[in-house]
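Example (one chain per record):
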Amino acid sequence: MIREEKLNEYRERATALVQEMTLEEKVFQLRHYAPAIERLGIPAYNYWNEALHGVARAGVATVFPQAIGMAASFDEDMIGEVAETVSTEGRGKYNAQFKYGDHDIYKGLTFWAPNINIFRDPRWGRGHETYGEDPYLTSRLGVAFVKGIQGDDDKYLKAAACAKHFAVHSGPESLRHSFDARCSEQDLRETYLPAFKALVTEAGVEAVMGAYNRTNGEPCCASKRLLIDILRKEWGFKGHVTSDCWAIKDINENHCVTSTPEESVALAVNNGCDLNCGDIFQYLIKAVDEGLTSVDVIDEALIRVLTTRMKLGLFDAPEGNPYASIDYSQVDTPEARALNLKVAKECIVLLKNENNLLPIDAKSIKTIGVIGPNADSRKALVGNYEGTSSEYITVLEGIRREAEEAGVRVFYSEGCHLYKEKMSGLSKKNDRLAEVKAVCEQSDIVVLCMGLDATLEGEEGDTGNEYGSGDKPNLKFPGYQQLIMDTAAECGKPVVLVVLSGSALALDSAASSIPAILQGWYPGAQGGKAIAEILFGKACPGGKLPLTFYSENNSLPGFTDYSMKNRTYRYMVEDPLYPFGYGLSYTTFDRSIREVRKNGAAVSGTVEFAEGDELEIELEIKNTGKYEGGVTVQAYVEYGFEDAPVRQLKGLKKLYLAPGESKKTTVKLDSAAFSLYDRAGELKLNKGSYKVYLGDSQPDELSRRLTGQKCDSVSVEVK
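Predicted structure:
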């Protein structure tokens, strides 16, 4: 964290620079593509850069699994390690690009990541950019990511992270430019704001991006409530706020809150939006002339923006800045590729493994069939906001490497198009069905690779987005995928389904007819190798679902309804198909509570708890199986109050154990873990009985049936 005296120095220097500028120069410095001011020694700079799961859109970089996949690891330390690698590559690329005079878009050190919106509805196309549906998990992973991006030097930021999109933003994509996301104060505080608050108050995130939509009537990029009252006054945010791209023109053109561009830019800058992604801020000059805003307000916005560049060391000589010496040799290193493979393996979730079909025993088979539109797809590896990898390994390529090493022949069919009715233009519909049957007939075991890619789910207009501006129309597998799965399931051979997608799909049919299912997400450039190693037992699956997988029988609330009622595991009244926090393993673990402590003193029985107390629960975990693997200690608090979540994740520990190895770990819970927001949005510790459940999954009955394990528990009484 940068020392306070350095922060004051940077602000003073930024203030002095601003005082030397004309109004026109100031205004043009507040657009994302800031021109050089040679007389003041200010180089050109473009603030727009992306690093959601690797440095994006600027050439070669390590392409890690998409964010939703990394969330499935439930591993804060690993997310931090990924972010450190991303920022190292970002610095290496920036230093090389700056050296050769390249100041273009996607070349700066202000990374507009992470996306910490809550994935409240499985139809939302951008959900795969997030860390899932849970505010606590999103907070913990987001904090780790920001700290890894920004570094730990006391003088300079390694790079600047940005928490987006503030706030209450999760679709529909087609309505985002005019939509008013209305939610209760209780849902705002309990669900939509906690991750943003954590990134500001714990991680010191440098930037916050406003959302396109309105929230409770106010455009998010010009919301006094969000940007001034909550972000700056309540949370003490010191960095800068940027608009989403071209969002400010929506204020008058689509939200119709203002009538002119001058009114829109004045409303935004007056209410705390400092930087404009787009070019509408040029109207600030006229807005000053019309008395809609003032030079002092513009000065303050620019001081904040330039202070970020000061923190990055962009106005200093490289000597003394430990990050200025990072060069291009530290991009796409063997170590980064090895980390990428490790992360991809930790992201994969084993949903079903009937009769221990997996891992595949290569010695017992002679042939393996690989079928599906995502089997040999690079697009299905990477998701969106991606960089360019120097090497991609698809699922087919990964399986082929493992199979050929064991002398097993691989048969392959695309099976069907990802979403179209046929593969060849002049063919009849479903023109690969006969080939699918032939491959199944020749194979001892069949691996299906189905799902989506970013051309079907993603940001509005980002990569074509075949359906509703990037949102899914429903949870079904598109095109002929379901028919191909059904055909394979009926072939009489063992079948494994690998799903590559960034969101939950309807797996009811597969769950009833296919013996083994892996959720692979968008597993990154090394994803095919990771999945193959899981399939053949060279690695043990340990991922957990960061979102609920709904059943086809569940009744989803309306997409535009931002109430949390009957949404996500925290408020659902029906059983889903697969619950949040669920995932199987090839190995087994024993778990026991060793000691419960309140404020450092051991206690037994029901724990009496009060405001300011801290509860520590020490557990011992032992790997009792045959595989090295990860175990996720999940601590849930169950409340039992009206208007409260059913339960909430409030503690998290990820351990990796060799066969026979034991480790102790401690989960700590303070009074905030037991506190709830009331209808007025006030956080209160309510009198009553609570349960703390600790296990490798949720404590619900469905999770118990699926895993065959019960959670341990501790009773807590608040007097």
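Caption: The first strand starts at residue 33 and ends at 34.
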